[in-house]
Amino acid sequence: MAAEAVLQPGIGVLGNRRIPGNKGIWVGITCELAEFTVMFVIYFVARAHYPEAFHAGAERLSRTAGAVITLLMVTSSYFIACSVAAIRAGDRRRSLLWLAAGFLTALGYPLAKVLEVTWNLAHGIDGGSGIFFTVYYYLTFNHLVHASWGILGMVWVLARSIAGGYSAEDHGGLEALASYWHATDIIWLVIFPFFYVLA
Amino acid sequence: MSSPEKVSRRRPSASTLAWLALVALTFASLGLGEWFHSASWLPLLVAAVVWIKGSLVARCFIESHRAHPFIARVLRAFIAFAPLALVATAYFGERLARWTAL
Question: pLDDT tens-digit profile of A105-129?
Fold first, then answer.
Protein backbone atom coordinates (compact mmCIF):
# COMPACT_ATOMS: atom_id res chain seq x y z
CA MET A 1 0.00 0.00 0.00
CA ALA A 2 2.81 2.36 0.90
CA ALA A 3 4.27 2.04 -2.60
CA GLU A 4 0.95 2.85 -4.26
CA ALA A 5 -0.26 6.31 -5.06
CA VAL A 6 -3.43 6.86 -3.05
CA LEU A 7 -5.40 9.85 -4.24
CA GLN A 8 -8.17 11.14 -1.99
CA PRO A 9 -10.80 13.43 -3.46
CA GLY A 10 -9.59 17.02 -3.33
CA ILE A 11 -6.30 16.43 -1.57
CA GLY A 12 -3.45 14.64 -3.26
CA VAL A 13 -1.76 12.05 -1.07
CA LEU A 14 1.13 9.96 -2.34
CA GLY A 15 1.65 7.08 0.08
CA ASN A 16 1.59 8.84 3.45
CA ARG A 17 3.04 12.10 2.05
CA ARG A 18 0.77 15.00 1.20
CA ILE A 19 0.65 16.90 -2.08
CA PRO A 20 -0.83 20.38 -1.45
CA GLY A 21 -3.50 20.84 -4.12
CA ASN A 22 -2.76 18.33 -6.84
CA LYS A 23 0.15 16.88 -8.83
CA GLY A 24 -0.60 19.00 -11.92
CA ILE A 25 -0.17 22.32 -10.13
CA TRP A 26 3.17 21.17 -8.71
CA VAL A 27 4.44 20.31 -12.20
CA GLY A 28 3.50 23.90 -13.12
CA ILE A 29 5.05 25.39 -9.97
CA THR A 30 8.28 23.41 -10.46
CA CYS A 31 8.51 24.70 -14.06
CA GLU A 32 7.81 28.24 -12.82
CA LEU A 33 10.58 28.02 -10.21
CA ALA A 34 13.00 26.57 -12.80
CA GLU A 35 12.16 29.41 -15.20
CA PHE A 36 12.82 32.06 -12.56
CA THR A 37 16.03 30.33 -11.49
CA VAL A 38 17.30 30.84 -15.06
CA MET A 39 16.22 34.50 -14.92
CA PHE A 40 18.00 34.92 -11.58
CA VAL A 41 21.18 33.52 -13.18
CA ILE A 42 20.87 36.26 -15.83
CA TYR A 43 20.48 38.84 -13.03
CA PHE A 44 23.56 37.62 -11.14
CA VAL A 45 25.73 37.39 -14.27
CA ALA A 46 24.69 40.93 -15.28
CA ARG A 47 25.32 42.16 -11.71
CA ALA A 48 28.78 40.57 -11.66
CA HIS A 49 29.69 42.21 -14.99
CA TYR A 50 28.24 45.68 -14.26
CA PRO A 51 28.35 46.21 -10.45
CA GLU A 52 28.39 50.04 -10.77
CA ALA A 53 25.26 50.07 -12.96
CA PHE A 54 23.44 47.90 -10.40
CA HIS A 55 24.54 50.10 -7.48
CA ALA A 56 23.40 53.26 -9.23
CA GLY A 57 20.22 51.78 -10.76
CA ALA A 58 18.51 50.84 -7.51
CA GLU A 59 18.84 54.44 -6.29
CA ARG A 60 16.65 55.63 -9.18
CA LEU A 61 13.73 53.23 -8.63
CA SER A 62 10.76 53.97 -6.37
CA ARG A 63 11.29 51.99 -3.15
CA THR A 64 7.74 52.84 -2.15
CA ALA A 65 6.44 50.95 -5.21
CA GLY A 66 8.58 47.92 -4.35
CA ALA A 67 7.42 47.97 -0.73
CA VAL A 68 3.73 48.35 -1.68
CA ILE A 69 3.90 45.41 -4.12
CA THR A 70 5.65 43.28 -1.46
CA LEU A 71 3.02 44.11 1.16
CA LEU A 72 0.21 43.37 -1.33
CA MET A 73 1.77 40.02 -2.24
CA VAL A 74 2.37 38.79 1.33
CA THR A 75 -1.03 40.02 2.52
CA SER A 76 -2.89 38.43 -0.39
CA SER A 77 -0.95 35.20 0.20
CA TYR A 78 -1.93 35.31 3.90
CA PHE A 79 -5.62 35.85 3.06
CA ILE A 80 -5.58 32.86 0.69
CA ALA A 81 -3.91 30.73 3.41
CA CYS A 82 -6.73 31.80 5.78
CA SER A 83 -9.27 30.78 3.12
CA VAL A 84 -7.76 27.28 2.98
CA ALA A 85 -7.74 27.06 6.79
CA ALA A 86 -11.43 28.10 6.91
CA ILE A 87 -12.56 25.52 4.32
CA ARG A 88 -10.61 22.81 6.18
CA ALA A 89 -12.61 23.80 9.28
CA GLY A 90 -15.78 23.40 7.21
CA ASP A 91 -16.63 27.13 7.22
CA ARG A 92 -17.50 27.84 3.56
CA ARG A 93 -18.70 31.40 4.12
CA ARG A 94 -15.54 32.47 5.96
CA SER A 95 -13.41 30.73 3.31
CA LEU A 96 -15.20 32.67 0.56
CA LEU A 97 -14.71 35.98 2.41
CA TRP A 98 -10.96 35.34 2.87
CA LEU A 99 -10.69 34.33 -0.78
CA ALA A 100 -12.47 37.52 -1.91
CA ALA A 101 -10.14 39.57 0.34
CA GLY A 102 -7.12 37.78 -1.18
CA PHE A 103 -8.40 38.45 -4.70
CA LEU A 104 -9.04 42.16 -4.07
CA THR A 105 -5.62 42.57 -2.44
CA ALA A 106 -3.97 40.73 -5.36
CA LEU A 107 -5.64 43.14 -7.82
CA GLY A 108 -3.62 45.90 -6.15
CA TYR A 109 -0.43 44.41 -7.61
CA PRO A 110 -1.09 45.15 -11.34
CA LEU A 111 -2.49 48.52 -10.31
CA ALA A 112 0.67 49.35 -8.31
CA LYS A 113 2.76 48.12 -11.25
CA VAL A 114 0.99 50.44 -13.69
CA LEU A 115 1.57 53.38 -11.33
CA GLU A 116 5.22 52.38 -10.89
CA VAL A 117 5.88 52.11 -14.63
CA THR A 118 4.12 55.47 -15.20
CA TRP A 119 6.37 56.99 -12.51
CA ASN A 120 9.43 55.34 -14.11
CA LEU A 121 8.63 56.67 -17.58
CA ALA A 122 8.01 60.14 -16.17
CA HIS A 123 11.52 59.95 -14.67
CA GLY A 124 13.09 58.75 -17.95
CA ILE A 125 13.45 55.12 -16.87
CA ASP A 126 12.63 52.66 -19.67
CA GLY A 127 14.00 49.35 -20.92
CA GLY A 128 16.80 51.11 -22.78
CA SER A 129 18.07 53.09 -19.79
CA GLY A 130 20.90 50.65 -19.11
CA ILE A 131 21.60 47.03 -18.20
CA PHE A 132 20.10 47.36 -14.68
CA PHE A 133 16.76 48.60 -16.02
CA THR A 134 16.68 46.03 -18.85
CA VAL A 135 17.06 43.23 -16.29
CA TYR A 136 14.60 44.98 -13.93
CA TYR A 137 11.86 45.18 -16.60
CA TYR A 138 12.61 41.64 -17.81
CA LEU A 139 12.28 40.07 -14.36
CA THR A 140 9.45 42.18 -12.95
CA PHE A 141 7.26 41.97 -16.09
CA ASN A 142 7.74 38.21 -16.17
CA HIS A 143 6.65 38.07 -12.54
CA LEU A 144 3.62 40.22 -13.33
CA VAL A 145 2.63 37.77 -16.09
CA HIS A 146 2.84 34.86 -13.63
CA ALA A 147 0.89 36.82 -11.01
CA SER A 148 -1.79 37.61 -13.63
CA TRP A 149 -2.27 33.87 -14.21
CA GLY A 150 -2.70 33.50 -10.45
CA ILE A 151 -5.29 36.30 -10.38
CA LEU A 152 -7.19 34.63 -13.26
CA GLY A 153 -7.03 31.38 -11.26
CA MET A 154 -8.53 33.23 -8.29
CA VAL A 155 -11.51 34.28 -10.46
CA TRP A 156 -12.18 30.63 -11.31
CA VAL A 157 -11.75 29.45 -7.70
CA LEU A 158 -13.98 32.31 -6.48
CA ALA A 159 -16.71 31.26 -8.94
CA ARG A 160 -16.40 27.61 -7.81
CA SER A 161 -16.44 28.72 -4.18
CA ILE A 162 -19.59 30.83 -4.68
CA ALA A 163 -21.22 27.82 -6.37
CA GLY A 164 -20.39 25.73 -3.27
CA GLY A 165 -17.79 23.68 -5.11
CA TYR A 166 -15.49 23.23 -2.11
CA SER A 167 -15.98 21.49 1.22
CA ALA A 168 -13.84 20.38 4.16
CA GLU A 169 -13.38 17.02 2.42
CA ASP A 170 -12.88 18.26 -1.15
CA HIS A 171 -11.01 21.53 -1.67
CA GLY A 172 -8.09 20.48 -3.87
CA GLY A 173 -8.77 23.26 -6.41
CA LEU A 174 -8.59 25.97 -3.76
CA GLU A 175 -5.42 24.48 -2.30
CA ALA A 176 -3.83 24.20 -5.77
CA LEU A 177 -4.50 27.90 -6.39
CA ALA A 178 -3.15 28.73 -2.92
CA SER A 179 0.06 26.76 -3.62
CA TYR A 180 0.60 28.56 -6.93
CA TRP A 181 -0.02 31.96 -5.34
CA HIS A 182 2.33 31.26 -2.41
CA ALA A 183 5.07 30.14 -4.86
CA THR A 184 4.55 33.36 -6.87
CA ASP A 185 4.82 35.25 -3.57
CA ILE A 186 8.15 33.54 -2.76
CA ILE A 187 9.49 34.55 -6.20
CA TRP A 188 8.56 38.20 -5.55
CA LEU A 189 10.20 38.09 -2.11
CA VAL A 190 13.44 37.14 -3.90
CA ILE A 191 13.05 39.79 -6.64
CA PHE A 192 12.26 42.63 -4.20
CA PRO A 193 15.76 43.08 -2.68
CA PHE A 194 17.43 42.61 -6.11
CA PHE A 195 16.07 45.95 -7.32
CA TYR A 196 14.77 47.92 -4.34
CA VAL A 197 17.09 47.12 -1.42
CA LEU A 198 20.60 46.43 -2.73
CA ALA A 199 22.13 49.61 -4.11
CA MET B 1 -12.57 32.01 33.65
CA SER B 2 -11.87 31.05 30.06
CA SER B 3 -11.84 27.43 29.02
CA PRO B 4 -8.56 26.10 27.50
CA GLU B 5 -10.37 25.83 24.13
CA LYS B 6 -11.32 29.52 24.21
CA VAL B 7 -7.78 30.51 25.24
CA SER B 8 -6.26 28.52 22.36
CA ARG B 9 -8.71 30.13 19.92
CA ARG B 10 -7.48 33.58 20.89
CA ARG B 11 -3.87 32.62 20.16
CA PRO B 12 -2.77 33.91 16.73
CA SER B 13 -2.25 31.18 14.16
CA ALA B 14 1.15 30.31 12.68
CA SER B 15 0.12 31.94 9.38
CA THR B 16 -0.82 35.20 11.17
CA LEU B 17 2.54 35.29 12.95
CA ALA B 18 4.29 34.50 9.65
CA TRP B 19 2.45 37.38 7.92
CA LEU B 20 3.42 39.80 10.71
CA ALA B 21 7.05 38.64 10.46
CA LEU B 22 6.99 39.06 6.64
CA VAL B 23 5.68 42.63 6.97
CA ALA B 24 8.27 43.45 9.65
CA LEU B 25 11.12 41.96 7.58
CA THR B 26 10.00 43.93 4.51
CA PHE B 27 10.27 47.20 6.43
CA ALA B 28 13.55 46.04 7.99
CA SER B 29 14.96 45.33 4.49
CA LEU B 30 14.02 48.81 3.32
CA GLY B 31 15.67 50.31 6.41
CA LEU B 32 18.82 48.26 5.85
CA GLY B 33 19.02 49.37 2.21
CA GLU B 34 18.47 53.01 3.15
CA TRP B 35 20.85 53.31 6.11
CA PHE B 36 23.59 50.78 5.34
CA HIS B 37 23.66 50.79 1.54
CA SER B 38 27.45 50.97 1.39
CA ALA B 39 28.17 48.47 4.19
CA SER B 40 30.14 45.43 3.03
CA TRP B 41 28.01 43.10 5.19
CA LEU B 42 24.69 44.29 3.70
CA PRO B 43 24.46 41.54 0.99
CA LEU B 44 24.98 38.90 3.70
CA LEU B 45 22.14 40.30 5.82
CA VAL B 46 19.84 40.81 2.82
CA ALA B 47 20.52 37.20 1.75
CA ALA B 48 19.58 36.00 5.25
CA VAL B 49 16.34 38.04 5.16
CA VAL B 50 15.42 36.60 1.72
CA TRP B 51 16.01 33.08 3.01
CA ILE B 52 13.95 33.66 6.18
CA LYS B 53 11.04 35.22 4.25
CA GLY B 54 10.98 32.44 1.64
CA SER B 55 11.17 29.77 4.34
CA LEU B 56 8.32 31.40 6.28
CA VAL B 57 6.00 31.32 3.24
CA ALA B 58 7.02 27.75 2.39
CA ARG B 59 6.54 26.45 5.93
CA CYS B 60 3.58 28.44 7.24
CA PHE B 61 1.54 29.00 4.04
CA ILE B 62 2.42 26.00 1.81
CA GLU B 63 3.10 23.71 4.82
CA SER B 64 6.17 22.29 3.06
CA HIS B 65 7.15 20.33 6.18
CA ARG B 66 4.03 18.18 5.66
CA ALA B 67 4.39 17.96 1.89
CA HIS B 68 5.88 15.25 -0.28
CA PRO B 69 9.72 15.29 0.02
CA PHE B 70 10.09 16.28 -3.66
CA ILE B 71 7.99 19.42 -3.09
CA ALA B 72 9.85 20.23 0.12
CA ARG B 73 13.22 19.79 -1.66
CA VAL B 74 12.24 21.91 -4.68
CA LEU B 75 11.13 24.73 -2.39
CA ARG B 76 14.22 24.44 -0.17
CA ALA B 77 16.54 24.52 -3.21
CA PHE B 78 14.78 27.49 -4.83
CA ILE B 79 14.72 29.50 -1.59
CA ALA B 80 18.44 28.78 -0.95
CA PHE B 81 19.63 29.53 -4.50
CA ALA B 82 19.15 33.32 -4.61
CA PRO B 83 20.72 34.07 -1.17
CA LEU B 84 23.76 31.91 -2.00
CA ALA B 85 24.14 33.50 -5.44
CA LEU B 86 23.70 36.94 -3.87
CA VAL B 87 26.56 36.33 -1.44
CA ALA B 88 28.73 34.79 -4.21
CA THR B 89 28.15 37.80 -6.50
CA ALA B 90 28.78 40.31 -3.70
CA TYR B 91 32.07 38.80 -2.53
CA PHE B 92 33.35 36.96 -5.64
CA GLY B 93 31.78 39.13 -8.36
CA GLU B 94 34.97 39.60 -10.38
CA ARG B 95 35.67 35.88 -10.51
CA LEU B 96 32.04 35.18 -11.51
CA ALA B 97 32.32 37.82 -14.26
CA ARG B 98 35.53 36.16 -15.56
CA TRP B 99 33.86 32.72 -15.61
CA THR B 100 30.84 34.05 -17.50
CA ALA B 101 32.68 36.27 -20.02
CA LEU B 102 32.10 35.40 -23.68
Answer: 999 999 999 999 999 999 999 988 9
**Which residue in the set A19, A78, A198 is minimally distant from B67, CB to CB?**
A19
- ipTM for the predicted complex comes to 0.88
Residues 9-68 on B with a CB inside 8 Å of A are: 13, 15-16, 18-19, 22-23, 26-27, 29-30, 32-34, 37, 42-43, 46, 49-50, 53-54, 57-58, 60-63, 66-68
A12 in a domain, yes or no?
no
- Residue from A1, A20, A12 nearest B65 by CA: A20
A15, part of any domain: no
Return the CATH number at A87.
Answer: 1.20.120.80
Torsion angle defined by CA atoms of residues A17, A19, A22 and A23, in that order, rounded to the nearest 10 degrees: -80
Phi then psi for residue B38, to 5 deg, are -105, 5
Please check whether residue A154 lies inside any domain of the structure.
yes
Q: Report the share of chain A in percent with pLDDT over 90.
A: 86
Q: A159-177 pLDDT, tens per residue?
A: 999 999 999 999 999 999 9
